[in-house]
Amino acid sequence: MGHLKLEILCLVVGSVVALLALNIDSALANTGSNADEEGGPVFVKEPPSKVDFSNSTGAEIPCQSRGTPQPEIIWLRGDGTAVGDVPGLRQVLASGALVFPPFRAEDYRQEVHSATYICLARNSIGTIHSRDVHVRAVVTQVYDTHGDQEYIIKGNSATIRCKIPSFIADYLDVVSWHDSDGNVYKLDNRGVFEDGKFVVLPSGELHIKDVRPEDGFKEYRCQTKHRLTGETRLSASAGKLVITDPQGSTAPRLSGDTQISGFARMGMKGSTFGLICPSQSFPPGIFKWYKFTDGSSRQPVQLDDRLKQLGGTLIIREAKVEDSGKYLCVVSNSVGEESVETVLTVTAPLAATVEPAVQTVDFGRPATFTCHYQGSPVKNITWMKNGKRLPQTEAVIRIDAVRREDRGMFQCFVRNDQDSAQSTAELKLGGRFDPPRLTFKFREEVLQPGPKVSLKCKATGNPSPEIVWELDSKKVTNADRVQVGQFVGENGEVVSHVNITNVHSNDGGVYRCTAISKVGSATHTGRLNIHGLPHVKSMDKAQVVAGSGMVKTCPVAGYPIDAVIWEKDNRVLPINRRQSVFPNGTLVIDNVQRNMDQGTYTCVARNAQGYTSRGNLEVQVMVPPKIRPVSLGDGLFGYGESAEIQCTVNGDTPMKIGWSFQGFGTALNSMKGVKITKTSEKSSLLNIESLSAENSGNYTCSAKNSAGTANYTTTLTVQVPPRWIVEPTDRAFAQGSDAKIECKSDGFPKPSVAWKKAAGDGPMDYRDLKGSAPGMRVEDGNLVISAIPKQAEGYYLCEANNGIGAGLSAVIYISVQAPPQFEIKFRNQTARKGEPAVLQCEAKGEKPIGILWSRDGKRLDPKPDPRYTIREEILSNGVLSDLSVKRSERTDSALFTCVATNAFGSDETSLNLIVQEPPEVPFGLKVLDKSGRSVQLQWSESFSGNSPITRFYIEYKMSKSDWNSGKDRVLVPGSQTMASVYNLRPATTYHLRLVAENEVGTSEASQSVTIITAEEAPSGPPTGIAVEPVDQHTLKVTWKPPLREEWNGDIMGYYVGYKLASSDKPYLFETVEFSREVGKEHHLMISNLKTYTEYSVVVQAFNRIGPGPMSKEVAQHTAEGKPDHAPQDISCTTLTSQSIRVSWTSPPLASANGVIKGYKVIFGPASSWYDEKTKEIKATPSSEIILHGLKKYTNYNMTILAYTNGGDGIPSTAVSCHTEQDVPGPPTAVKASVMSGDAILLSWQPPSQPNGVVTQYTVYQRTVEPKESEATSQKIPSFQTTYEISGLKRKERYEFWVTAHTAIGEGQPSKSATTSPSNKVPAKIASFAEKIVATHRDEVKLPCQAVGVPAPEIKWKVKGQMLTQSNRLRVLPDGSLLIKEVTRKDAGDYACKAENSNGHDTIMHTLVVQAPPQPPSISLAGATGTAITVRLKSPSDSAPLHGLTIHYKQDFGEWEATQIPPNMSEYTLEGLNCGTRYQIYATSYNSIGTGEASDILNTRTKGQKPGVPSAHKFIEVSQNSVTLHLSSWDDGGCPMLYFVVEYKARHQSDGWTMVSNSVKPSGNYVVLDLSPATWYQLRVTAHNNVGFTQAEFEFATLTLNGNQVGPARTNDNGRGLLLEVFPWLPEWVDYNMIVAGCAMIVIIVVGLAVICIAVSRRNRGPESFRLRDEGLYAQPDMRGMTLKREFRDELGYIAPPNRKLPPVPGSNYSTCDRHKKGMNHPTWNGRRPAAATGVPHTYEELANGGGGIYYDDHPPVPPHAHSDDSSLYSKPPNGVPGQDEEICPYATFHLLGFREEMDPSKGSNGLTLPHGSTTLPPPGHGHHRGGSQSAPRGSNTTRYGRGPVGSGVVSSVAGGGTVGPNGIINPPNHVFSPEYDDPANIEDEYGYNSPNRRGSLGRRSMGSMRTVPIPESPSPPPPPPRPSDSPNSTPSHSQMNQSNDSKESNELSEAECDRDPLIRNRNSVSGGAPGNMSTEEMRRLIENRNQNEAHSIPNGLTPYDTVNV
Prior knowledge:
It contains 15 helices and 139 strands.
């Protein structure tokens, strides 16, 4: 009982944990991208299936995998247990590799070194296993091979075999045979040797054809090679032929091995096989080979180059799997015939692939994995999931409904006896899923019978769960009183109810609601108690497995229940310890037994009043199978014995019994001699006839019935008697050597090996080895004698025994030889020059032994030469003599002989001493020949250093590499002095040198030689080729250059070829320029292709030599388009009144333009076909559809279109179908109007849904008061909607209703109308108010039928006004209103009133007049190069619009039209011509007709002819080609169509050479085959839809060295230039005379202007402005003046000490003296842009006061802080500048030194521009002072930076700037680049080094049209601008010339440069203090004053800035 409670508790806890885990898994599954990034393990490096290694080498088996997260690597044994480290023998590395280190033979462990391993990789996604890895370590053993002796009849073919010990046979290959004559028969690379008579077969046999007597005198030895160690050795003994003469005729007889030759080589595909047919006969037989086909029939083998017959042997080269089969060799002669069969099995490596590799499947969806495998043979296929084996054995595994537990890693394994392979696939779960969760649960309740009960549960989950209800473990279903409902709420919750009406007591019990989905479930249980008597409900039969537990709760209803008990056989339970009964009626039985617990149980429920209820439960106990123990005794069986295993099972039948061996059931079916017999239903017998070692293992008997399964495993062991592995043989050993004699055997149990030695001289009386000889021991069955002594000689016995059989024994004789001897008779010994050498000779034998040394045949005496020393040492088994040489020299190279003598004889050995040294440096290295990839070298051999030069190293490297890390080597045998270096890269510079090497060392490297390999065409194709569809007609090809080592020169470009994939035509190639940007991807757009057509694309690179190889074809389809044709053969068939079948055939395949995904059926009522809202669309993949839910008896239009991924195709023409009729709906309304005391007029309206043609009406009437009567009816024609009923009674009340009829039948009745006849009849209108729709210009009748007594009067109102009748509007006698020729104005409300004395009645009609629509408005919304978008607006109207029609045409073209839906407000006309004028108007139409047209809209598409680019952007030249950058052309807004490219040499007078007249506009175009260093003219014509533009360019190709060619010399004396400027000049004009004449006129005019200006200024100008005779400039009085630092800085330039600073005279300078005298001459503001005045002038007049310079410590805000263009410096508050300052505003000083230090070439033709100006003055208005003028700093922007770039560039300015239309100069780029030498930056060459110097910023002079220098170059600041003295704000042209063109000013300033004394004697004109301060003193004053003020001034100004003042 306690155990069962514990189990229940564990079950509950486990369920909770499982639900939590499910929630966690669900949450993890919902983690979006993280889950998508995870991936299961996949092997990156899988271990091989077989690993053989030697114990001397060891092995490392790699295993690497990838996945996310990174998988863990674990190694397993074949039985699935984990592998651990075994110190020194096995180790698992962190990288996942399994390592077997080298080990000693005695450390060999079979469980480690001969086992099967598996690499396991696992992560959180799943687990995978590698293929089986069979590891076998081979311990190095001593072995010998022997040649076989073959007996053969002369004239036959003989086969000599190489006998190889079995323990080494798997690792030895016979590689050749050697005969005693020195001939070698060696296997070739295909595994066969063939030389006419001798053939070496792949399996190692030597086949000798046509044996002759002389063949018997030879000996044949086989040479073998160890596959693991590489050791080769000859056989210890030779094979021989024993040839006999024939003794009469003999029939063929077979001998030898007839097995497959070469099978030991694994029989792999591609190997060579030899099928032998060893036969002897006389006369020699004839051999024929056959192959069996179809099992029984045989066909002769067809011999060819691959299948050859050599004698009787069939050689199969490069074997195929198809060669497998049974072969028959038939040999026959005149005497008889013999045959032999051979089975050949050719295996191929196994490989497997599972598809798909990754599969994402939603819950419940099916999944399939297919295992594709290759190789042969395939023995079985198995599947694993997450490392656990699945029962599937087929190549396809299917999962019908995927569940959560199915996700993970699936593996397919393919195996045979020698190999295995596997492949991995991953199954992922798709979608987002949440397990069900109950959000609301019903509560337990106690109720009285009778009321309604509702139990509710709510659940959420994804997918939405289904809620199932159970009552007492039985499902609740709908019944009379019980209803189960379920719905999904707004928030996605599933709500389920169990509603019970009139609840009974039997409805009580335990209710359970369970929310179930495919991802889980959630359950809630509660009890509903209903008051009533106890009631035990019926219980289903319970089946319980014997030994398990049973839990059953009694289903009791009623309340309250006093007790629930269980009974069995009228006994109240429990009656034993295994039974428990709980108060809630639950019965628990532990360990159920059939004999005790099976039977009928009764549940008894009782209430307090003693009322009871009983219910029975039938319990059936099922017994699971149980296998009786199988007894095999001790389990040991002898080899060849038989064994039987009996499996007897107890348990219920039917029973299924099976057997398995070692865990695999299929293995027993293939085991030989195994038989399984079913002896009875419960027993099975396994019988093995003859036991072998392979039968040892575990046998499992499995039994299964409906109650369970059982297994029993027993072990069978087969005992095998000993057998020899290595049988010992006689051996002889030299005394003192180590002896080892092998004696090995195997068997089961493992035999023990013992050695014994004969006590006497004969082979008898063997005794133990103990005490026989020292150092004698037995190791692993081998007899080992260390330093064998003489007494060890004798007979020895080796015995092997394991208790099975008689055992094995072998007798051998070991002899020990003791005469003195040297083991080595001659040897060479080397010594390094300068190092000591020791010569040793060790003589073994009986002592004493004497030693004598001789040198070159002469006895050696060490006394004369002290470098020699002789020392002897007596050993236990001989003497050791050492001859020592202290320092070896070349002369010591000699033959030394050591002679040993004792009593038994003498022996000698020779030692050839060679003193060696490294070789000398090779010399004479020279180049014999070279090509693009190789070079041939020759050299002279130097001294070898007394050691043969073993090799030379040719070291070479690329020129950019160093010898340490970048060199490569070529090894050359030391016997050669000429060699070639291959695998060089073409077009590469190499350095080569030579190094010699011998055994001592290497020489120094020789002098290197330098070569440049020749260029070759590229050797590799471009890489990374990808083709992607851009649209239906364009493919984008992308690629990268070939590998750099495959360029073989400089890549010039690429040829991109394309063609239809199905076409055999050659490729169409386009040329693409090579991009020199490293790593850049090239691309090409291939356009004008066919829609959804597969194209093949290749790319090849080319260089100067030619094109390289093409890339592999890349096939790609263009994008899918829309189908060009509509579906065909459309038909529709009416099925019912609401369904129509539509069928069609697909459009022609050629017009599909893709893969048709399906069809769309567009259908709608024909009456509203124009209205898109009434149409419906249904898609279907088939060619037929049934439309349901249609309107009854309605005509439908329908069109069908096909669609692809490219979009919807063209819809078909609409077809129409009419749905069938149906019964009509009820009439809309019914009126019963009293006409008299016995008559009533009944009127009605037709049905709103007639559903067909109304054939008649039926009027029903009956009496309802005072008593009801049966209804009567009357048929009325369909055209009549009124009916007068008479003969009625006044006091009775009648009810009337009407039905309509169609051909199908009678419809539904209308609403009833009741009334009673009356003598008083008020006016009543029988007609109904209607909305009447009339067509424009039609006639309409508005009904108004009235009744009443007296007859009523009819009156009409039209739109609220009384009707005035006319010919068009009149009232008919029946009261109706007739309107003729209805117009729009007639629309409105019409009221009819009927009135008499008894009452009145009124109805209102609404008249709607439908007319053709009014004209729409059309306006332009936008335009592009090929489209125009118009905006449409249609006025509202009564009749709905059906659509609009847009009409358009281009000038001089035809009108075209297109229709659009009525609700479209904008429409784009596409496919128009670019840059073309169009006329457009629109019309509207409806069901009435087409309205008037709108106004015509005149517009045009955008675009113009192509624009010509600049030459430097368009042309890129090289040595032999020019690249045209076609993208630099301005397309004018219209797509380029093509280019025409022509060229000719500049000196060529004839026509142009056409390169191509159809160059595509995309990418670049390369013109090839040009001559280097040649001038060419290029003409390019660009075409677009607007027109074409032609441009000519000149260019020169580069020289061969890559340099540019100078400008070509012309002899036209400037004629060409003049024609460019003045193209209108005629040809006869002499241009030289024109130039000379113009120059003379300019000189005269300028001279006269200068003279006039000078005279006028001298005579009429102000005194302070007049020129002085002395040429001095009037200076202000500067006594006591303190020059503020701002102005000192603004001077910007301090002359060197040797320069004087006089001001430059000139009347146009504004000085302080002028201002002090009140001469208010205007000054022009250089900071205000001239554009503000509207006049193109440089300066602007300032207001009085000079513009207000600040004189305090705060300078004005710099220009970049202002947003307006007002004067940058504000006027002080008082409006007058400070009186203590002597430098006036805008006074201009010219500081000398500029002319001398400035490059005159920097001037711009004498142009001077003010710093604040944004415009250029007119030509000729510059200040001509050579190079001393300055240019503007740009526009009115920041003081230091560039101004904004101007707009409207019309020409280029030298240096990179541009001049705009208003003269604005735009700098080429925004950098701080001083142009002139800035004196503030001059170094100490002028003698001063101020710490306040700095680089000049922002002083870029646009007057110097040069390129921008580096910022570090010093530049002098430009002088301030000179203001004009004109009084007007807009000076004239002449005034500007007068103010600035002062030649005298230039001359005077030049003359007065160094006149310091004259300046010192001058006084101010104002009469102030004498000017006793020289300019040099002024400079010092400025320089020395207040050095500490050299800090930065606020607002951005710093020392030595130059500003305008």
